[in-house]
Amino acid sequence: MISIKHLSKTFRNPDGSTLTVLKDVNCDIEKGEVISIIGPSGTGKSTLLRAINMLEPPTGGEIWVDGENILAKGYRLDKMRRRVGMVFQGFNLFDHMTVLRNITYAPMELLKKPEEEARAEAMELLKKVGLAQKADVYPDSLSGGQKQRVAIARALAMHPEVILFDEPTSALDPTMVGEVLSVIRGLAKDGLTMLIVTHEMRFARDVSTRIFFMNEGVIYEDGTPEQIFGHPVRSATKAFVNRIQKLVYEIDSDEFDYLQIHTGLSRFCIKYNLADKMDEAYVLIKEMLFEHLRGIRPLTFRITHAELSGETALDFMVEGRTESPLPRNEAVERLRSRVKGLVEEPTARGFRVKLLI
To answer: How far is Cα of residue 140 from the mean position of the Cα atoms in its chain?
Structure first.
């Protein structure tokens, strides 16, 4: 359906220097595939999507769509853009138009659909994304998640053969990410061909038929979700998919700054979409530091989050110990029943207590 050959993109900076973002990208995309594009920031993921849609014309190479090279001289880009839809990070809705008009505008103007037909299709699409009741409101009254769902409906209104999603959840509040990912999951079940740039590793693993891991301006590794996440071939891929985010505090006395921990935890949970675990984490940390481990100082406290498995843990490390610092009482047994797991284990440094939440 889409064949990309030796694609490159170089930007020229105002000072005359150049930056090559895409170096030599090669891939074939078949009808019905759902391909998630993952990798570190700055490796060309979004540029690749924008090059496919000619929003960033490539410096070199070829892009074939249904047997036609869209970089060939004389090729009409509007023909390609009717086949290839795009959903952006920043929604890009028309603020002066109602939600319904945002969706009907392109089909009426470009496909010359009668207004009644365009409105009927738009209402069906709004039902599909759960927003039929918002048809007559303006975008500024919508949440970020609702705006992105409207943007998806707008892209679908052109009946594209392929939709490109450029980090569709990156501009959203963490509490709204799920509603957008749910819509994309539904589209995947419908068999729509999609390329999705995302930092949501669990989503990429669950929804995709194929994964591109991009690094250093190329597709560094290409495989099934099972291969990329379970058995990556290249060390850079393995390091990326297994990454663990962490926040560490050293607590030397009972006079430590709990407010600093509280603030840091809030930022950590927001950054890594853990809003649903935030309140529970607050309660558990306070209980551990002021009750179960009270007077045991110094200790090291860490909150960790494994992006792929989704495992979040509160980790309390006491150096020089050979046995658990937790008391054996009913309060600790109640604590054990409230968490997904309570691990007590010796380490080379001392003893660790880990709460899985």
So the answer is: 24
